[in-house]
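Q: Hi! First time doing this. I have a protein sequence and I read that you can turn it into a structure. Is that right? Here it is:
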Amino acid sequence: MVFEGSKTRRAILILGMHRSGTSALTRTVNLLGAATPQTLMGATSNNLRGHWESKPIVDLNDEILAACGHRWYSPQHITVCPSEVVRARGMWSRLRDTLESEFDGASTVVLKDPRISRLVPLYREVLDELGYATEAVLTLRNPLEVAQSLARRDGMGSRRALSLWMRYTLDAERGTRGLPRALVVYEELLADWRGATDRMKRQLGSPWPQVTPEMAAAIDAFLTPELRHHKVNPPGGGIGRAAIAGLLYRDMRGTLSRESSATPGFVSSTLAELNLRTGRALTGLLKRPTPD
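A: Yes, that's right. Below is the predicted 3D structure, encoded as structure tokens:
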């Protein structure tokens, strides 16, 4: 369906680092009226309530990242143009056909795979070619909680996990500039999904259907506190990768919550990018905050 007042097909991208709550948000947006892909990945022991993402699209994104010289766990900047690589490798029609097949003509769709955070310009181009008006929702979670979740699921070290969190966050933010976009903080979604999604709708600016009692009951049953397995305070001041990730997290949360078209501060984004490019902590550039 097309939401009342819409004039074109809509694709709502759910972006953010793995283990940041993108699955929970995608299912919530689905229950609010947007169609999910037809070939969904099944639930796993690490995601008992489902991933809510398309297995064919995930597999294709892994191929695209590999063709660009990367994997989902590569924190390095992608230096090639994914759209050019996809066209040169003859993958463009496969991507188009996969998206069309997975959504089967639905006019308002929600598309989630954290890998798309690294490939936003590519998806903007192909969705535009397919006649979709693209919107984006950036999902933000405390980077230390993400690192703990990745350690539990993959045995990943904290430094790599924090690097990935910064890379996905930076790429998703930069790739969505100029699009209608919103920011949803994972803990706020779990604590008050009505408030979080109302702000999301206002920031996106597009019409949505009225939330019925049945829709609200389904979301209440889905979004329970058990979804948040790790609860720690965000990184504070100091030096090192955690401090830089914490600075970017606080900046993104504060700035984009107020105005979704705004961009994070020069200091936080530059420090994060420099840390990723040099692979070293930038000692001395961040001071520990003074206690109140």
